[in-house]
Structure prediction request, 646 residues.
Amino acid sequence: MNLCYSQPASKLAGFLILKGLAVPTLYDKIWADHLVGQRFDGMSLLYIDQHLLHEVTSPQAFEGLALAGRPMWRVGANLATPDHNVPTINRAAGIAGFDDPIARQQVVTLDENCRRHGVLQFDIKDQRQGIVHVIGPEQGATLPGMTIVCGDSHTSTHGAFGALAQGIGTSEVEHVMASQCLAANKTLNLQVKVVGDLPVGLSAKDLVLAIIGQLGTAGATGHTIEYTGAAIAALSMEGRMTLCNMSIEAGARAGLVAIDDTTLEYVHGRPFAPIGAQWDAAESYWRSLNSDSDAHFDKTVIVNVDQLVPQVTWGTSPEMVTGVNGAVPDPATISDEVKAESARLALKYMGLTADQPITDIWLDRVFIGSCTNSRIEDLRSAASLVKGRKVAASIKQAIVVPGSGLVKAQAEKEGLAQIFIDAGFEWRDPGCSR
Amino acid sequence: MKAFETVHGLVAPLDRANIDTDQIIPKQFLKSIKRTGFGDNLFDAWRYLDEGDMQMTQNERRLNHEFVLNEPRYQGARILLTRENFGCGSSREHAVWSLMEYGFDVVIAPSFADIFHNNCLKNGLLPVTLDHATVDQLFDRAEEPGFELTVNLVAQEVRLNDGTVFSFEIDPDYKAKLRSGEDDIIATLRHADQIRAFEGQHKARQPWLFNR
Ligand code: SF4
Prediction:
């Protein structure tokens, strides 16, 4: 086994087993299998299998490469699509339909850069275009056991596949383009163990909000989370993506779910997934990666979901969350001065009063979309609630933004789009909709 | 990135704590496709009275003459003196780019936010951490016309023209990197052979990762 402790493993093996340290987690295994070595300054060089690019964080990185006269290290490891600033209306017009000149320039620049370097891009006219974190899995470009980076903090989404995925900054985007490596330090392992069954009607979003409510937005700082428990294993891939997507909101570098039949069924047959003998080899490798039952976690947090009710975030931070049967807090009763002050500011910003019950809050806008919840399964579940109903007259805007062109087409084929349109929603084109 | 040794220059005092990256460079200016062009929008909401956008040039803006960086006596400052937790908030690297492009080579404060501190290293801006009492003293002195400092990274000291010296601590690796002017990519590419060898083995073990 390829362990990467700083001490020689053989000498210390007995000691490590005694201390319960020798049994690696999924994170430890993926890390070890991608560790190129230590840079002379002590940083670890981690080999990156998949780099996702979009129009906002890539141009300066391409510019940096050009200024230094450097090639991309491995073009085939990159996949690009414009998503962050693309308009979600009038897309049939292509680039001509952009009113924002800056967004247009970003998209044109991405086109040029991809063309110049030969990077595969799903451009604005391609039906496969969509939110990076939707299209990676959809195309099978996201595979179990991979290391994946992207210049967007929600890259943790791909951890649903048992892939080590994290968001990076612009300098790091250039660094990965130039060297296929990320200079990083290993994180600690945090197990979030979910006990009980998720009650009927609740989704992964409720689950992850409850987890963040318990951990706090900095509760997982310096850690990679692995979500375990029967309720996690029971989630669909879409649900797992929603869960891992929000790991970053708890401060974690990345979030992971073990690789199982659900994972493999989802991946099998996707355009970039291996086939034939390669699939068989991949499958047996992937199945060997999971954390062993006695794997060592630096910290374990247990979250019981048996009694969970639908969760609502009421403030300006995802840890400001409560059950739908709850109420917003009264800052006067919060003992931590910093938390009390941020609750006070959030209530003011949101126009809420202390102790107001959640069910007494009027909705102004409804938005269904984003990399957290814009996959076909999300649209199916939203449509099943909307069917036969109308958007209330008091709602100022109600929009649905599918996560990719393929999700959009599928939703139209299944009649979901019509359900939303009949109810009074705007049915938009794919993108982040920031 | 240029090698860092010594900077001698005028000091601009910005007497606020917890300045976050959105105050350093507000988010409406992040849509650029370049690494440059952010200097004019450094501390934008404080420097100008109107709300600008990326298309406007500086001449079209209304300057806030009350703001310290707009005072004639601080023009050309290379050293920014400020308060604790400088650079908190979002991780945008544009904050460092805009400070450097404006002309700052050094920021002196009692403390810096973590990611900002890392981003300084990636781009060659020197963050100097001095204790509260020393920073207070420097703020008093910065009221004198033409107050200058020499910041010497090699000797790890801040020297006043009257000969007073304050020394500062800095992580030796961090210092070595700033002094060499070597960016992270050059540092990593020194290991190119090792990366290539790893890649070969990785491909042999997991060929499905190399189908594109
Ligand atoms: S939907 Fe929002 S969070 Fe997700 S990738 Fe797009 S911009 Fe980032």
User: Anything to note?
Assistant: The CA atoms of residues 66 and 179 of chain A lie 14 Å apart. Chain A has 15 helices and 17 strands.
